[in-house]
Amino acid sequence: MGRKTRLPDDFLVTVDLRDYCLKHWGHERLADLHLDDFRDHHLAKGTTMADWNLAFKNWIRWAAPGGRFHSAQEWEAKIQRCKNSRKALLRAKDRYA
C-alpha cells in the first residue's frame, strides 16, 4: 500500500473506472455523474487516501441502492440521466457526422 496523499487536482475518471461502472451497473457515464460529488467531498474534508481509484469505486458502490448515499429512487434518477446523456451524445454525433 502506498503513502496516503490528498486527492490530486487532476483526478479524472479513468477508462478502468468507466469499465467498472459499465460492468456492475450497465452505465459507464455513472462515474462522471459522481465525480464532482466525490471531488468536492474529499477536498472539503482534506481526506488522504493510499489509492484514490479504489476510494472512487467505494463511492460508487455506496451510491448504489441500499448503499449509504441514495435511495432507490435517487439511484434510478441518476441512471436515467446517464441514459439521457448518452442519447443526447448520439443525437449530436449523428447531427454533426
Characteristics:
97 residues; mainly alpha; two-stranded antiparallel sheet; 4 helices; 4% strand
Topology readout:
Layout: E1 5-6, H1 15-25, H2 30-45, E2 48-49, H3 52-63, H4 72-96
Antiparallel strand pairs: 1-2
Overall description:
- By secondary structure, the chain is mainly alpha-helical.
- The chain is 66% helix and 4% strand.
- The radius of gyration is 15 Å and the shape is globular.
Oligomer: single chain
Percent strand equals under 5%
Which value, in Å, is the CA radius of gyration?
15 Å
In helices, the fraction of residues equals 55-70%
Task: Give a concise summary.
This protein is mainly alpha-helical and 97 residues long. It has four helices and two strands.
